[in-house]
Amino acid sequence: MKVGVVTFPGSLDDVDARRAVVLAGHEAVALWHGDHDLRGVDAVILPGGFSYGDYLRCGAISRFSPVMTEVVAAAERGLPVLGICNGFQVLCESHLLPGALIRNNHQKFVCRDQRLRVENNGTPWTSSYDGGAEITVVLKNGEGSYVADEATLDMLEAEGRVVVRYLDVNPNGSLRDIAGISNERGNVVGLMPHPEHAVEDLCGPGTDGLGFFTSLLAPVG
Amino acid sequence: MARVVVDVMLKPEILDPQGKAVQGALPRLGFEGIRDVRQGKRFELEVDGELTEQRLAEVCEIAEKLLSNPVIEDFTVHTDGADG
User: Fold this and answer.
1) Cβ–Cβ under 8 Å, residues A113 and A105
2) Cβ contacts of residue B4 below 8 Å, gap of 6+?
3) Which alpha helices (DSSP H) does chain A contain, by range?
4) Do the chains contact at B17 and A60, CB–CB below 8 Å?
5) How far apart are CA A128 and CA B6, in angstroms?
6) Is residue B1 within 8 angstroms of chain A, CB to CB?
7) What is the pTM of this model?
8) d(CA A220, CA B64)
9) Active-site residues of A: which are they?
10) CA A76, A82, A87, A93 torsion: positive or negative?
């Protein structure tokens, strides 16, 4: 498959995301924030980083970049979209995902190997995992505390849209230990941890993150 | 030309770690008795021409669409003609 990875000014993990895509057996296509088309890709990843310097709010300016107009339209047609960290923030600001990400409750940037449970393996980004699989990937954020009103949280839980949940410790104050969620259709997934940093044994805490990228080839259960 | 001010604050139920950090610094500086600090943003918009109802409605739209995130923030819009 052709997987597009968007680079915004200030993106940091776009190259790692493209590398993970290739390791998973796909073709990586570099997309630029100023692009008006998605170059025929079969899926899009919004990578981590500090797009537009996190000015105004994380992801708030990126949402209005030309490429995001295309990403929002394609996501609404069912294109698989994965937002990692800053990408998750962009998806929330774009209203493709509900809720918002605010500053960590302990006020510090956090960088650690984080255990997670894959709560929903029915999305195009998680179908390689067994349901309830426990994985360890890198987590690094300053504004990763997921918040939404009670009604939204209840809806996400009831509809199985909490895709990954923090295990052992809640690293940032996210409500209900939520690490990642999906839209109603399931094609749009956002998460704060970085699976693209856990795809090779040489660096990072292992290869548990690779499943997010191999899932695109697996049938959705 | 008129100046319109948009104040954006986190909703009361949303935790404000930055405000908490500021509050935590006050006793260290010798300031006592500040029960709570909430940190917000102030935007000053210089608007061309006369500030009509329609222009003001536009500023409200800007505040809602870009300057604030309605999921976590409230905003207020007020005019500040004296400095204009």
Assistant:
1) no
2) B44, B45, B47, B51, B56, B59, B77, B78, B79, B80
3) 14-23, 66-76, 86-93, 150-158, 211-214
4) no
5) 47
6) no
7) 0.93
8) 37
9) 85, 194, 196
10) positive
* Residue B25 in contact with partner chain A when CB distance is under 8 A: no
DSSP H or E stretch at residue B42: strand B40-47
What is the CB-side half-sphere exposure of residue A80 using CA atoms within 13 A?
23
Q: Tens of pLDDT along A179-213?
A: 999 999 999 999 999 999 999 999 889 999 999 99
Residue of A nearest to B19 (CA): A107
A184 with A155: CB under 8 angstroms? Answer: no
The interface predicted TM-score (ipTM) is 0.84
pLDDT lower than 50: segments of chain A: 221
Closest by Cα among A42, A33, A45, A39 to A7: A33
Q: Which residue has the tokens 């404000």?
A: B16
Chain A hits for B10, CB-CB cut-off 8 Å, are 102
What residue type is A58 in one-letter code? C
Distances (CA, A) of A17 to A36, A120, A164, A198, B55: 21, 22, 19, 10, 43
Place of tokens 């570099």: A30
* Beta strands, E only, A66-143: 81-84, 100-102, 110-118, 134-141
